[in-house]
Amino acid sequence: MKKPFFEKFFFLLFLSASFLSNAQQYNYFEFDTNMPVQIDSTVQGNQWQIGLPQKMLFNTAYSEPNVLVTDTLEQYIPGQLSRCTVSIDSQTLGWAPWAWPRYIFMFAWKMDADPDFAGGFIEASYDGGMHWENIFSDTVYQIVFFGDGSIDTLWNGELGFTGTSDDWQMGLICWGALDYLPTVPPLPERIELRFSFDSDSMATPGDGWMLDNLEAWPEVIHTVKELESMMEAEEAHRIYPNPASDYINVVSKLGATGPYVSGLWVWMGNCLRKSNMKHGIKGFIWKAFF
């Protein structure tokens, strides 16, 4: 029987919300980080910089004051490739890959690029940078991506992001997010992520690509493969799909200490599911059936 439409909308209630930040890598582009960015010095004219954004559109960080951006002052140069990398390291996270079957990487981003001749894309390497796979066509781990904005085929054939985003977008990359399949190998101890912004010589200049709040953590909770929509419950929480009829997903990233209780209610007050979350989880993706 089809459920009434008003029963399909949900809100999330968090009580005593708190997490432990030990099993996490992060870079908010301030002084303290355990996920340093390597700007590729072999790429001539590389425009990636860390600093205060001072452009027409890119003028505010997601978390003040600094960002990673294709030049803090100037627009991107037509015909220029810019690259930088970060690493997800199980030793830094403090967990063995076999103990945590999934890794999560979350980032905030803004784009201002010529949709016909410029854009950004992300690649992953599992062998120390010898080989790279676009995350949207990864044949090794069948990565699942959750996020705002659309995924486009760029002028260079890569799958990635282009156009102009007025607001900050959120992206979340999941390794090992599918069921345990014999064709998917165990996660390596180290994953390299490479962010590339590429423009053709015919591109109209723009502000380029801006990144902030890079975070990574190990995960054990199952995620879903498809994303219909994404809505914010509060700044730190996202719920999707919404509306929904059979399941709902919660993505959360908090930063205090202690356990908390999460629950899922319809607007009339019926509690569909409630869970006690333990210490030691920085973020989670929770799938609730009803």
Can you give me a brief rundown of this structure?
The chain is mainly β.
List keywords for this structure.
1% helix, mainly beta, seven-stranded antiparallel sheet, 290 residues, five-stranded antiparallel sheet
Produce the secondary structure layout.
Blueprint: E1 10-15, E2 25-27, E3 38-39, E4 48-51, E5 67-70, E6 81-89, H1 90-93, E7 102-112, E8 118-125, E9 133-134, E10 144-147, E11 152-153, E12 159-160, E13 169-175, E14 190-199, E15 208-219, E16 231-234, E17 237-240, E18 247-253, E19 260-266, E20 271-277, E21 283-289
Antiparallel strand pairs: 1-19, 2-15, 3-6, 4-5, 5-15, 6-14, 7-13, 7-15, 8-9, 8-14, 10-13, 11-12, 16-17, 17-18, 18-21, 19-20
Tell me what you see in this structure.
This protein is an all-beta fold and 290 residues long. The protein has 1 helix and 21 strands. It has one helix at 90-93; strands spanning 10-15, 25-27, 38-39, 48-51, 67-70, 81-89, 102-112, 118-125, 133-134, 144-147, 152-153, 159-160, 169-175, 190-199, 208-219, 231-234, 237-240, 247-253, 260-266, 271-277, 283-289. The strands form 5 sheets. Strands 2, 4, 5, 7, 10, 13 and 15 form a 7-stranded antiparallel sheet that branches. Strands 3-6-14-8-9 form a 5-stranded antiparallel sheet. The two termini are 13 Å apart. The relative contact order is 0.25.
